Amino acid sequence: xxxxxxxxxxxxxxxxxxxxxxxxxxxxxxxxxxxxxxxxxxxxxxxxxxxxxxxxxxxxxxxxxxxxxxxxxxxxxxxxxxxxxxxxxxxxxxxxxxxxxxxxxxxxxxxxxxxxxxxxxxxxxxxxxxxxxxxxxxxxxxxxxxxxxxxxxxxxxxxxxxxxxxxxxxxxxxxxxxxxxxxxxxxxxxxxxxxxxxxxxxxxxxxxxxxxxxxxxxxxxxxxxxxxxxxxxxxxxxxxxxxxxxxxxxxxxxxxxxxxxxxxxxxxxxxxxxxxxxxxxxxxxxxxxxx
Length: 291
Ligand code: GUN
Fold this sequence. Notes:
- This protein is of the alpha/beta class.
- It has helices at residues 13-33, 49-64, 80-91, 111-117, 129-137, 145-156, 176-185, 200-204, 250-253, 267-286, and strands at 9-10, 39-45, 68-74, 98-101, 165-169, 189-193, 209-212, 230-233, 237-238, 244-245, 259-260.
- Helix 1 runs parallel beside helix 10 (267-286), helix 2 crosses helix 10 (267-286) and helix 6 crosses helix 7.
- The structure holds guanine.
- Guanine is lined by residues 100-103, 125, 145, 271.
């Protein structure tokens, strides 16, 4: 008799998002009853097609949960000074609790200047140095949405990180570095791997939890995963047939992992959900309501 092949639990980011968004909607109603409607301003500069889809989904997420949202679209010739002036106006606008400038911005605009111009109290993307510093030191602030969503996914499967070895592949400011800090805060032993890591497989084979956030297909294959590991896939790539795929060889890795996130339908929907959570919390904090 042959035993059936092992197959990992698939962590459903769509279902978890629905659950979390229902909670957000209820908290929005409670806040509205006190006369406050959480407001998010989304700024898009230029015509990047992927960015247009992302901002549309962000605004739709806001509408679905009862937020006030403003989408400001500018053509690619908007000057840096004009953009900074818009941010200053939104910083001062009491109806707006969160400000998000969709990245990338056109080359003539300095993205870090733009990020630092957003008030840390409204930095719902969690990209400001003040937010990064708050995460690093365990102070209250806003956590970047994608790694925050990954932590919620681990929590949803009751993954206790204490004493576990977590390997993060990728060291971006938006995902890899904050991800490592969040895992560390939950008492994992954390390794960050990147393009100059000489033997990635030697690292991932030791991991109880692996987060792949590189932006390249098949960065993680079955032979690189310890049986029973939990695997989160942050990648958003296209395969040869043009289909959306992650950084992980899903079909192979699901045969050895204990739990895995799919692409699409995994981490992606969680990113917008955590943006909504951050915006709601910004509004609650503005009214001195503890979250
Ligand atoms: N571009 C790609 N991902 C993001 C994100 O999470 N926030 C912003 N502002 N821009 C992005």
